[in-house]
Amino acid sequence: MSKSSSRITTIIGAQWGDEGKGKITDFFAGEADYVVRFHGGNNAGHTVIVDGHTYKLHLIPSGVLYSHPVSVIGNGVVIDPSALIKEIKYLQKKGVDPNLKISDRAHVILPYHIEMDITLTKHQGELAAGSTKRGIAPVYGDKMYRHGVRMIDLLEPEVFKDKLEKAFSFNMTLIKAFGHTSKLNKNDIFNEYIEFGKFLKPYISDVSVDLYNSYKNGSSILFEGAQGISLDVDHGVYPHTTSSNTLAGHISSGTGITFRKIDRVIGVTKAYLSRVGQSPLPTELEGDEATALRDKGGEYGTTTGRPRRVGWLDLVQVKQAVRTNGLSEIALTKLDILSGFKKLPICHSYKVRDKIIKEMPASLSDFRRSKPVYETLEGWGAITSGMIKEGFDALPLTLRNYVKYIEDQIDCKITIISVGPQRHETIIR
Question: N- or C-end of the chain: fewer Cβ atoms within 10 A?
Answer without folding.
Answer: N
